[in-house]
Please model this.
Amino acid sequence: MRRLSRAEIAPERFAVQWLDARRKALNEGERVGKHLDRALHQVFYALDEYPIDPALREDGDTTDAELLGIVDRTLEWIDAAGDRRRPPSVPLFGSSPLHTAAPAP
Model:
């Protein structure tokens, strides 16, 4: 996620790698706390609506800018969570201000 945030990886490549890594972690029984799990699910939900092949993009799909915004917000929450282990104060995806206020591509 940090590589995407620093523009070191293309969103399409991030999507493939993140989904593969998350699937592997879950298959190997890796578990995280409920709030981190909730935050990671927000990234998953964004990727679920993200067309890896830009030629397949339709209205309403997650855009590159929206994906970057969600990943950035997730990283900010992870960095700020510390020992509080509280859920993000607002949803990271969907009807949240982040999703609707992402910059145009």
Observations:
- The helical segments are 2-5, 11-27, 34-48, 64-81, 97-101.
